[in-house]
């Protein structure tokens, strides 16, 4: 077997709208292509021996053991790889269950789809599954050591990618509330929400967290001074910078026992407590000095260690932190008890699990000695042996929930302290013998105030009730159901996506909102270009959704991005599907128009139930998408007598209809006429049906999002097919003696629509510079040749700079074949270089001619035209002149009927 390609999907996709995290592996079975599992000697036995837990897979029989039943009876290896990849992740602690296996149009080549929790682990699991199955085919077994290594590697991938228990708790709460989130590119930041409504978190610091509060909390001595000045009980202490000052500092705090800790420490690093001798103090000083230049010396207060969590000025959780310890059983040594304790599946490395494994340091041995033990000692049954003096969870400690026990006065004091320091989220370390009694009665103290406190002890205490502290954070960031999202309008289709996206964004600008939008020529925010290029995939969508100024997102969603990575968002408010026609077939295992329709239906399906799928009622494949989506349906149609739309309206639905020369919104028994088509520049004076359809779709998408008819009308009347607003979409230039037209037509449907304009050009010659992307099928190029012969008087065939894997000259030869089949006497030549081809066409154009350029690079084509002295870029206006009425070969734009 051979893996041909592995892709990672991160959003709604071709395989599943609900399961966003999928690995798609293109697998060539090679010699196993026609060999089911029951014909491979010993395969079933070897698989069961390696992974007996596959018994739990149901598969199509729908019962436990169903998958192994299929293997015994005979199934193809791609299907087996799918299940093995899922099971390997399960054994590593990642619970996944979704998979699909489909044979492609290439015999023996399969698409194997598996769910993942961690991307690296998902890809690794796919590769490991192929290795495992191939090993059993070849040797009848998969070595146990290799399987154990695979599982350990998967665990390592998962651990290394972990965001930490606090961040995970926040993410889970966000998902429960339907708040979208995404990781940002730096400093472990995550974003909650989209656009202008977003909030950001770094661990448990939010974008509400004040820098002054964080700075103060990080300076433990300054915190202590300001709290003491406000009458808050804090430990008596001082700060030193040199060992020579240690003895005087001990005297200053009242002698032993003392605590020594770094001024700038966290997570218990460098802290030593209950110090009772000079030797211990010296060692503690050196340990603290490894963390911080300045050292705190404090009086040691006897009591239990408590963490009080305050969020948005309110106490939300209290935990007693118990230092790392073991309990004697009368049989095992302390070393053995530690080993046994660390076997607890709830204990992991660092912060990757509910508890942390116990590790010993110098203070552990001192503490053992003080208790009269060594690691070889066997404590009596029930005896607690403490291994750490500090109670941090990161050093192996555990937590007991005490939220319901804290005294009201202590609640008041904790909330007051956090306001004094100035934090929105804070953890107070309190030492007291009884948290249920006021601190002032217990000679208790507030030891520290921590910015970015860990949530682990509260969300998963060792004993007691887990507290939903992340819920308190969400309530603070998004109070009173404050929105976390911005409206997302997604646009797809074979043709017209870019024009419709730009028009829809322009309509929304009439509302005064900041609009971010993505197109095939760039990503834009407001009136400004953020990044040039074909930006119609999830990465460019994230640029818009991450921008804190964007209030509305209009996202062109092309087939390539959906196929490679899925949509860049979980759900949209509006999903627009314009049409489905033959284009890009044979790429990415999308071989038929029906498969292409299924791919584009992702946009309609990934709409909120209270949102709208805006569908073309005149395209039966698009109209059929209404059955797939849970959203409301809104149709647009060029046919005012459409039976589908009539029934839809009778049921209370809404539609955009072209009727009696008007673009209208129809609902129930009323009709809102937006504007006459001839008054909308984009429609070329009402003579461009496909542009009218684009305008209907954009108007309807805006209307269902409560944009007013007046605002829609204003947007339609001020949007023009120009280089500034629709580059590469029907840009017509007057060069004095002749005209040049630039359009990004690149498939048969767009060629046919463009031809309806070009054929009406009656003066001079109609010269075409034609070509197509190299990754199209051979028959597609032949069709483009036939269409070109029917449209142009003279044809120059060029090729893209990027041939997309096709041999140079191959596409030109196929277009030539189509031209000669359609019109043997047609005049044409091949100039493969696009720049040379464009210049040749412009050089040879007789007076009154029209040079039509269908370029790979729109910007390059426009520059080549403009250096020749453009007299004007013709702006389509409402007019009724026909071609035969034009003077000097200047074609009125009202007759342009093009497909964009």
TrEMBL record:
It catalyses: [L-4-(L-arginin-2-N-yl)aspartate](n) + L-aspartate + ATP = [L-4-(L-arginin-2-N-yl)aspartate](n)-L-aspartate + ADP + phosphate + H(+); [L-4-(L-arginin-2-N-yl)aspartate](n)-L-aspartate + L-arginine + ATP = [L-4-(L-arginin-2-N-yl)aspartate](n+1) + ADP + phosphate + H(+). Keywords: ATP-binding, Ligase, Nucleotide-binding. Its EC number is 6.3.2.29, 6.3.2.30. Residues 224-478 form the ATP-grasp domain. It comes from the Bacteria. InterPro entries: ATP-grasp, ATP-grasp_RimK-type, Cya_phycin_syn, Cyanophycin_syn_N, Mur-like_cat_sf, Mur_ligase_C, Mur_ligase_C_dom_sf, Mur_ligase_cen. The keyword Coiled coil does not apply. One of its GO terms (molecular function) is metal ion binding. The keyword Ligase applies. Catalyzes the ATP-dependent polymerization of arginine and aspartate to multi-L-arginyl-poly-L-aspartic acid (cyanophycin; a water-insoluble reserve polymer). In the C-terminal section; belongs to the MurCDEF family. Homodimer. This is Cyanophycin synthetase. It comes from Anabaena sphaerica FACHB-251.
